[in-house]
Amino acid sequence: MKSRLNPLLDPRGIQDRPVIKLAPRVSLEELKRGKILFYNNTKLSFCNYGEVFVRIKERFREMGIGNFIDYVETVRGKDTAALEKYAAMLAKEKPAAAVVALGDMGTSPATCIVTMALEKLGIPSVYITAPPGGELVEGVAVYRAGNLCLCKIDIYQASTAEDVRKEIDRKWDYIMDSLTAGPGRLQEVAHIDFRMDIIPPAENGLLPVTEKIEMMEDRLYEPGCYMEEVMEYLDREHIGDGLPVIPPTQSRLEKMFAYCPFDPGMTLWREVGPTGKDVTVRDVAIAAVMAGCKPQAMPVLVTAFKALADPRYNLLQSVTTSHPGGNLVLVSGPIAQQIGISGKQGCLGPGYPANATIGRAVNLVILNVCRAVPGICDLDCIASQAEFTYCFAEEPSLAQWKMINEEHYDAQTTTVYVLKAEPQHDIIDFLSLNGHDLLDTITDCCTTLGTNNAYIPGPLVLVLTPDHGMMLGNSGYTKDMIREHIHLRAVHDVPMVRNRGLVPVRPPEFADKHPMPVTRSPKDVEIVVVGGRGGHSGVILPWALHSESIVLPVCLPDGKAARNIEQFKR
Q: How many domains does the chain have?
């Protein structure tokens, strides 16, 4: 017997893949007569990267070009609309051409959007990139513009000034061609060879895999038949997270909506990731199928995506940052227990399907829809297990104080807390006899010189075991007392955090602080009691780069807070 397998839905959705018309290039004489815009996204302000513009200007002057205008401003914290507005402001200078830098790290995609906007406004532009951002910028340009003049130079934090200057000289012909080439040559210069999604997703929304597989009777009743062929295709096309997935068929997608009364076409994220694609409820549901979620997970996933889309979360940069953090989803309230999200022993590890699959679905959307794929379109240096899945719940039976949902709303409301954060860092203390000594151990674990919060104060989550929670409670500590203690004592001596680690991003009032806190106020410290008995608590430290923790209630389509998962049943 021969028959065909049911078709698989393409979890990437439909990619628009526009091809923008590049601005007409100018002659050498026009460069001499006009202004040259130099836009520095602030990344040239450290190490020896400033030599990029210094050397380009020297080479221009040798050619009789010397009318330069300089702008320096970060792209961080800006969405696509704000970036395009900024480009329009730059264009008011009416430059003959623009040189943009530097696309090296997390600001690379946003700076690429500025470059594309300049081209659309008629300004010939060249965007200087460096590892590891060069490959990410190529992806952003392929998905959002189709072509762009990208000058990749090979420099890094320890490059000398001379190294940087040599790289500019090595690429000088490309830089000049980017600004002055005729149409034929410009097409060559702006062409981008890309390693992924060479053939865009089909307009019918299906993957061309099952149509090529003929079902044979001797394999028909084998559990998971043809999974090997399906996974081989998905892995080859960089779809999924590398682990086996549930193949997303139409019937499975329909079942996933059993507890999802939201419009499948409702947009949850706008223009996120290299693709710049909006993320819809349907996209999330397909990821939930692939991750192995139960239909009851959908209300929590929809809430999580709404929280991640909050502008304060800085999603545009977070999905491709070099930081190894995942997107923590922490659920508090009755629906967590109703759908099986655990806060019990081992809740941050394997063995809890709801925890594992809900966290996995979040990451699958980032991989499949946003196309933030490691090694191709993502800046992760080494990444972490938190980017596979990162989800757990508060456990009411263990709580020593009010839970997150109670602090923000009430005991009947379920909330979802999201934070871009590192994997849990272990806090071991089996010997302290009271909460006072224990709290000193905990506080000392809330930062190190190698964590983001040494340079960027922000939120953190203290994850206490029941034993440690009882010790602190029995010693008279409230949540606010613990928060105050950590805020005042989790600090670094200023000389230790100067000129190392990361360019600091601190509130203005922190300029003269000594020692330097790792939280902005006690409110940055979140506290939960979960897990099993014993002396291993943990702390979850943040990315914090223009990124806040967000808490939202799980609501019905009419905006009212849900009290029970059954309220979502269709």
A: 2
Q: Does any domain span residue 391? A: no
> What are the pLDDT digits (tens) for 328-358?
999 999 999 999 999 999 999 999 999 999 9
Bond before 423 cis per omega within 30 degrees: no
Average pLDDT over residues 313-330: 94
- ∠ CA 565-567-568, nearest 5°, is 75
Q: State the Cα–Cα distance between residues 26 and 34, nearest whole angstrom.
A: 10
The b/e string for 83-99 (b: 16+ C-beta within 10 A; e otherwise) is bbebbeebbeeebbbbb
How many other β-carbons are positioned within 10 Å of the β-carbon of residue 267? 14
Residues 6 or more apart from 544 whose CB is under 8 A from it? 420, 452, 453, 456, 457, 458, 459, 505
Let me know if residue 449 belongs to a domain.
yes
At 127 the three-state DSSP class reads strand
Residues 225-247: pLDDT tens digits? 788 989 999 999 999 999 999 99
- What is the span of the domain harbouring residue 37? 28-189
Beta bridge mates, 428:
536
- Has residue 318 been placed in a domain? no
Handedness of CA 294, 298, 303, 309 (dihedral sign): positive
State mean pLDDT over 437-443: 98
Instruction: For the chain, give the mean pLDDT.
Output: 95
- The amino acid present at 568, given as its one-letter code, is F
CATH number of the domain where residue 514 is located: 3.30.2320
CA distance 548 to 305: 14
The amino acid occupying position 549 is: S
